């Protein structure tokens, strides 16, 4: 009677994902002899030495396996050849897996693995194989049981855990977050180590799990909509885990300037950069943009590292191929997308890839960390030729507080830069204009060997107005002994802004003083308070496109009925959209009245009704 125990040889994958102890608990290999190849031990040891979370996880699992075998009286043996240093350096080439298969063949044992490739090669060589992979339902259940999730609720955007400190969480929505403790007890390093093991184990088995990076004590894992960063010594001075997830799903219609973006993205392949500080809602916006593009009939793909955008299953998400986004771009061009979302661009190589794809005709939406919109354009300086920037990026969208706060148009022209008097100094100049006002905001040009990025203040004011302003400010300064501001509305109309209590002094009794000033200056003069000016500036901004006159209202008037009057006469009333806009046909009577009033500097008043 043959009493020899059945033998099982374990490979690295089935140890790292913790499936062996599960098989023992389920008595699927009860009474067997378990063999752990020395090649597996060496591989896990090498990974741990490099600070890889998979190495720590595997070594800890070996310890648990030994304890389980002792408890269940299962024979455990370490056998086989230990790989040389050169063989360990070639772990991705399959050398370690080959040594594991050879040992299984020599021992007449069954190879246990959760690696499909390992199982396929083993079976082709006639080796008995158990391919042990959890069912999707089980994997999803394991995600729900992650200890890390105890710190999350419906309002939690991110959880910040550091050994020896009280756990903290950011709660709220982009732009309105607050950091607060979650509990009173400090979290121990041992607990965080356990969390890290769970995270890696689930990432290995969950269908939506990816280990995006694992090196030198730093690991980045994507689990469904959770992005988790794990830091350990020597990379950090203590064990840390940071987990983030989106708490708000938006549509493009939820944002200011949504009609502008819809029009631009649909009319041609655009080069758009979305900028903003961390946590201000950039990723939430580009997710909404990707869904809009998809439903508009465009082929959309993403380039991400890590792949953490929450997009439709119809949108392919690519990461860096062999560590290089340039390789990803090569494959991307073969798939012929209409638009690509590039999240996020940080390194020089990222901007070079962005530029190359744009010049190839691909529509692109790039994401850049920047506290000011202009900073995102400046990132391209020195990385691509200056004159090519408007062809690469024609629109900059700046996000702050979860909404779009500013949109820039980027264009190339040939002119004398603002502030230079001599006509022979004309050169190619990149103009960055504010979309709302159409005002020139920045200029970029070369001066000698330097690239100049110059903020332009009031550059659209007529030269004759600049001269008139100086003369008027001098004259009125002699008339008034208090602070005032002057605004030139047209060639024959100005506005004077003063404090509320100084308005009577400017007008004079019965308006005598202001009438006398108008006669002396030959101008029509409006007298307004500082508060009235601020209110007006914030209430309405006007923009004209090829088809529409777009009236942009401040957020307090969204989804409200408003009445618009010119010089006290009602022009029309209507409902402001949830994006804060009213669109009029640019040739309609109402639009013509408003355009004429703006051109002549007449008072355009907005009243909620």
List the main descriptive attributes of the protein structure presented here.
Rossmann fold; 609 residues; 20 helices; Beta-Lactamase; 5 domains; 30% strand; ten-stranded mixed sheet; seven-stranded antiparallel sheet
Could you explain how this protein is built, in words?
With 609 residues, this protein is α/β, with parallel strands linked by helices. The protein has five domains: 7-133, Rossmann fold, CATH 3.40.50.1010; 138-244, Beta-Lactamase (2-Layer Sandwich); 252-455, Rossmann fold; 463-532, K homology (KH) domain (GMP Synthetase, Chain A, domain 3, 2-Layer Sandwich); 545-608, no CATH class. It is 34% helix and 30% strand. The chain has 20 helices and 31 strands. It has a ten-stranded mixed β-sheet, with helices on both faces. Strands 8-7-6-12-11-10-9 form a seven-stranded antiparallel β-sheet, covered by helices on one side. A five-stranded parallel β-sheet has the order 3-2-1-4-5. Helix 3 (38-49) crosses helix 4 (53-72). The radius of gyration is 33 Å and the shape is elongated. The mean pLDDT is 83.
């Amino acid at each position: 009677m043959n009493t020899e125990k059945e033998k099982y040889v374990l490979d690295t994958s089935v140890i790292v994902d913790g499936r062996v102890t599960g098989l023992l608990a389920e008595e699927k290999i009860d009474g067997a002899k378990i063999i752990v190849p020395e090649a597996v031990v060496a591989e896990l040891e090498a990974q741990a030495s490099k600070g890889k979370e998979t190495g720590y996880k595997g070594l800890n699992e070996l310890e648990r396996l030994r304890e389980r075998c002792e408890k269940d009286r299962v024979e455990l043996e370490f056998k086989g050849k230990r790989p040389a240093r050169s063989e360990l350096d070639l772990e991705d080439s399959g050398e370690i897996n080959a040594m594991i298969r050879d040992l299984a063949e020599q021992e007449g044992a069954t190879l246990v693995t959760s690696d499909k490739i390992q199982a396929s090669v083993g079976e082709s060589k006639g080796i008995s194989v158990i391919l042990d992979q959890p069912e999707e339902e089980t994997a999803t259940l394991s995600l729900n049981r992650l200890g890390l999730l105890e710190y999350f609720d419906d309002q939690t955007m991110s959880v910040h855990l550091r050994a020896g400190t009280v756990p903290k969480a950011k709660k709220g929505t982009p732009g309105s977050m607050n950091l607060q403790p979650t509990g009173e007890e400090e979290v121990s390093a041992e607990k965080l180590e356990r969390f890290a093991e769970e995270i890696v184990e689930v990432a290995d088995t969950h269908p939506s799990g990816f280990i995006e990076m694992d090196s030198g004590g730093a690991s980045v894992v994507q689990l469904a909509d959770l992005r988790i960063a794990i830091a350990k010594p020597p990379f950090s001075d203590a064990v840390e885990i940071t987990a983030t997830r989106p708490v708000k799903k938006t549509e493009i219609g939820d944002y200011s300037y949504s009609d502008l973006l819809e029009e631009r993205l649909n009319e041609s392949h655009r080069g758009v950069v979305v900028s903003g500080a961390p946590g201000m809602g950039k990723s939430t916006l580009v997710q909404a943009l990707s869904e809009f593009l998809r439903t508009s009939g465009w082929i959309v793909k993403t380039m991400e590292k890590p792949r953490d955008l929450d997009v439709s299953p119809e949108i392919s998400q690519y990461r860096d191929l062999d560590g290089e986004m340039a390789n990803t771009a090569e494959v991307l061009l073969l798939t012929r997308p209409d638009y690509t979302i590039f999240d996020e661009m940080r390194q020089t190589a990222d901007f070079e890839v962005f530029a190359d794809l744009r010049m190839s005709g691909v529509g692109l939406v790039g994401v850049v960390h920047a506290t000011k919109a202009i900073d995102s354009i400046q990132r391209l300086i020195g990385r691509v030729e200056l004159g090519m920037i408007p062809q690469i990026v024609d629109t900059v969208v700046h996000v702050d507080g979860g909404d779009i706060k500013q949109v820039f148009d980027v264009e190339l022209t040939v002119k004398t830069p603002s502030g230079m008097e001599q006509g022979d100094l004309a050169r190619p100049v990149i103009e960055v204009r504010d979309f709302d006002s159409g005002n020139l905001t920045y200029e970029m040009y070369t001066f000698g060997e330097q690239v100049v990025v110059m903020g332009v203040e009031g550059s659209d004011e007529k030269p004759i107005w600049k001269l008139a302003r100086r003369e008027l400010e001098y004259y009125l300064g002699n008339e008034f002994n208090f602070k005032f501001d002057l605004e030139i509305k047209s060639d024959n109309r100005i506005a004077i802004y003063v404090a509320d209590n100084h308005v009577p002094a400017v007008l004079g009794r019965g308006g005598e003083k202001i009438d006398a000033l108008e006669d002396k200056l030959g101008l029509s003069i409006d007298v307004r308070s500082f508060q009235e000016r601020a209110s007006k500036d914030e209430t309405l901004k006007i923009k004209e496109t090829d088809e529409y006159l777009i009236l942009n209202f401040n957020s307090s008037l969204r989804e409200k009925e408003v009445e618009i009057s010119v010089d006290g006469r009602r022009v029309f009333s209507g409902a402001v959209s949830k994006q804060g806009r009213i669109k009029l046909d640019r040739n309609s009577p109402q639009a013509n009245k408003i355009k004429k009033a703006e051109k002549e500097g007449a008072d355009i008043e907005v009243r909620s009704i």
